[in-house]
């Protein structure tokens, strides 16, 4: 059987997201061709041309719209305030669209895009790549086999030490423009909690700005309560995200009636992709054994080798969906999807005030 033609793709934005999380995976996938990269920054433009000499590098989003007839998919990897207008324009131009997180700045904007994509019969996906982190996949496997028993507390953290600002747009962006850690790392943590334990409500929120000049927030703690799936006790998710942790806490500390899972250290894929490693390379997505998490039943502590991470799975599933062969890799409007996550973030801001 002849393989379908690759999906012709443009990546809009060549910061960390476009450079490390999208372009390498698209270029590597047999289901896609990386045709266009958009960046108005001369240094990034030169870097893109050096890394992908056969790809057309253009300065503006309007250049993508002008090439819409020669493209199939557009990936929006620009600052959050641009996600809604750019995704809307791309959908109206007849293209399937991937939006990096946060999906949009407001749930109302997200709802508009979902309705538009449905009306036009286009694919709209959100890149929630942390669903393919090694620790997340490992925890899913432990939960599936019942190793933890009945989970009552999900502690998850994305804690870093970053007393300065790494990106000019972040230093200039308040909440209304999609700035702040709750929109950034918080989007990942809320999504993980929803995927693992189902729909939730916010019962506590602490949202603070610690760094001098921070226009939004950089230190956040949320408590979500998940409705019991089978009539049991609710699960509480304690989600911590901060840029003020010189000694970061665990990524996961999950507690259940039969034991607990404890994991420190972030998934290696961001570092590997930035260094030029690709999913087909030996060792991709694999962390050293000494970085493994641990399981304890209260008596014995044993290491749990992490499942390999697999961000490339998003694009494999996306290609199948665009071709009508399977579900979307991320169901945007579902009760545990990115739109639900945005509503929880809005709820957290209302509670905190």
UniProtKB/TrEMBL annotation:
State the species of origin: Arthrobacter woluwensis
Alphabetical keyword list: NAD, Oxidoreductase
Name of a matching Pfam family: GFO_IDH_MocA
Know the name of this protein? Answer: Predicted dehydrogenase
Which Gene3D superfamilies does the record associate with it?
Answer: Dihydrodipicolinate Reductase, domain 2, NAD(P)-binding Rossmann-like Domain
Alphabetical list of InterPro entries matching this protein: Gfo/Idh/MocA-like_OxRdtase_N, Gfo/Idh/MocA_oxidoreduct, GFO_IDH_MocA-like_dom, NAD(P)-bd_dom_sf
Spell out the PANTHER family in the cross-references. CONSERVED EXPRESSED OXIDOREDUCTASE (EUROFUNG), CONSERVED EXPRESSED OXIDOREDUCTASE (EUROFUNG)-RELATED
MF terms (GO), sorted A to Z: nucleotide binding; oxidoreductase activity
Which parts of the sequence belong to the Gfo/Idh/MocA-like oxidoreductase N-terminal domain? Answer: 7-127
Per UniProt, residues of the GFO/IDH/MocA-like oxidoreductase domain are 136-261
Q: What is the lineage of its organism?
A: Bacteria, Bacillati, Actinomycetota, Actinomycetes, Micrococcales
Domain of life, per lineage: Bacteria
Family statement? Belongs to the Gfo/Idh/MocA family.
